[in-house]
Write a structure and sequence with these properties.
By secondary structure, the protein is mainly α. It has a single domain (4-74), classed as Arc Repressor Mutant, subunit A (Orthogonal Bundle). The chain is 51% helix and 5% strand. The protein contains 3 helices and 2 strands; from the N terminus they run ββααα. It has helices at 28-36, 41-47, 53-74, and strands spanning 8-9, 20-21. Strands 1-2 form a two-stranded antiparallel sheet. Helix 1 packs across helix 3. It is globular, with a radius of gyration of 13 Å. The mean pLDDT is 92.
Length: 75
């Protein structure tokens, strides 16, 4: 299992404080959008060779955790 806490970074001055991958300017939201548009892991890595499969899994894990926390607060 990927520990997203080692991969996802949040810096106030970078991309408006959005969660990013390893301090890069690629956000979790960017990755989710690419996946939602039909890109595969291989497509994303081919276009952004600085990303790894682990980075993509970390973005998914981060988003799932955030969604779960929001749902629990709403109940």
């Amino acid at each position: 299992m990927v520990d997203y806490k080692q991969i996802i970074t949040i810096e106030p001055g970078k991309r408006g404080g959005k969660p990013c991958i390893r301090g890069m300017r690629i956000t979790v939201s960017d990755i989710l959008g690419w996946l939602a548009s039909g890109m595969t892991f291989q497509d994303i890595i081919a276009d952004f060779d600085e990303l790894t499969e682990e980075d993509i899994y970390a973005a998914l894990r981060f988003a799932a955790n955030r969604e779960n926390r929001i749902f629990q607060l709403a109940v």
